[in-house]
């Protein structure tokens, strides 16, 4: 029998949504680990956790970032000898048979991460699947709703704690692939998720998503992605990344509020990416 656990990183969670999240996953895994990153409402989280038998809370005392919290989840899984770890955002809600559907593909050769179709509450997106395809290999996936192979994870460099927030998931995906492991996406709508307050938009006759992230998030998004491009130069095309950044800035300019604040934050992040690289 495989041992499976779920890990949820908390930062001032909305308690009712967190309860919905826990209720959805609790009976699918052996244990749920909550890592608290300095939430103001930890007392309410603790009160909620008392209603369940197999929940462990690990309190960091302050916000150490998503990457550090995820690393702590995986370290816990390694020490306690779990085989697979399902990572969830605090506001993500999984389907009742998500783990059951994942288990079908745990035996795929060299699988490091399993992911699924993510249904966002705010906008529509294409899963990329044809109707009769059960699963396919992808280059990256978001952390929320991903099932990580603990043994495969042990062969990687682990989560990059310098990233704090944003690009943490893409970094571990690249790391997995560079160490010979696959990211497998199954054709199953497994997670109800929410990324900011996004909406579908049209730019130059193509569909994109305006996520409406805050200026601070824009800073981290721009800084961390450029850091990844410099950290893994063979994995990116500089020309494509330039186009990607220009497109992101146009979407902010034309479709989001506080656009100049957000653009200035992105430009600051791009300038400071080299500083992050020098800390390696």
Topology (elements, then pairings):
Blueprint: E1 4-10, H1 15-25, E2 31-36, H2 42-49, E3 55-59, H3 66-79, E4 84-89, E5 93-94, H4 98-103, E6 111-120, E7 135-138, E8 146-149, H5 150-153, H6 168-178, E9 182-193, E10 199-203, E11 206-210, H7 215-231, H8 238-255, H9 259-278
Parallel strand pairs: 1-2, 1-4, 2-3, 6-9
Antiparallel strand pairs: 4-8, 5-9, 6-8, 7-9, 10-11
Helix pairs in contact: 7-9, 8-9
Characteristic key phrases:
two-stranded antiparallel sheet, 280 residues, alpha/beta, nine-stranded mixed beta sheet
Note down, in words, how this protein is organized:
- The strands form 2 sheets. Strands 1, 2, 3, 4, 5, 6, 7, 8 and 9 form a 9-stranded mixed beta sheet that branches.
- This protein starts with a strand and ends with a helix.
- The chain is of the alpha/beta class.
- Helix content is 39%, strand content 24%.
Catalogue the unreliable spans: none
What is the string of SSEs from the N terminus onward?
EHEHEHEEHEEEHHEEEHHH
Radius of gyration: 19 Å
Instruction: Profile the largest sheet.
Output: 9 strands, mixed
Number of helices: 9
Number of strands: 11
Strand content: 15-25%
Structural classification: alpha/beta
Which outline best applies?
globular
Mean pLDDT: 92
- N/C terminus separation: 39 Å
């Amino acid at each position: 029998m495989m041992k499976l656990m779920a890990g949820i990183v908390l930062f001032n969670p909305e308690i009712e949504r967190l309860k919905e999240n826990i209720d959805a996953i609790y009976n699918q895994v052996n244990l749920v680990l909550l890592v608290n990153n300095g939430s103001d409402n930890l007392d309410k989280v603790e009160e909620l956790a008392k209603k369940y038998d197999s929940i462990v809370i690990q309190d960091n005392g302050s916000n150490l970032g998503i990457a550090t919290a995820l690393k702590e989840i995986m370290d816990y899984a390694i020490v306690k000898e779990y085989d697979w770890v399902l990572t969830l955002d605090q506001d993500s809600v999984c389907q009742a048979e998500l783990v059951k559907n994942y288990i079908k593909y745990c035996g795929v050769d060299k699988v490091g991460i399993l992911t699924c179709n993510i249904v966002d509450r705010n906008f529509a997106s294409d899963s990329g699947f044809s109707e009769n395809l059960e699963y396919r290999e992808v280059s990256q996936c978001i952390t929320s709703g991903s099932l990580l192979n603990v043994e495969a994870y042990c062969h990687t460099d682990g989560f990059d704690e310098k990233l704090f927030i944003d690009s943490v998931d893409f970094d571990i995906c690249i790391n997995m692939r560079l160490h010979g492991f696959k990211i497998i996406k199954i054709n199953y709508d497994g997670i109800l998720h929410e990324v900011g307050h996004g909406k579908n938009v049209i730019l130059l006759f193509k569909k994109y998503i305006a996520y409406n992230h805050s200026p601070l998030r824009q800073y981290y998004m721009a800084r961390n992605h450029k850091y990844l491009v410099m950290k893994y130069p063979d994995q990116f095309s500089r020309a494509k990344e330039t186009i990607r950044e220009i497109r992101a800035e146009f979407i902010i300019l034309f479709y989001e509020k506080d656009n100049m604040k957000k653009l200035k934050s992105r430009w600051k992040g791009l300038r400071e990416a080299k500083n992050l690289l020098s800390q390696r």
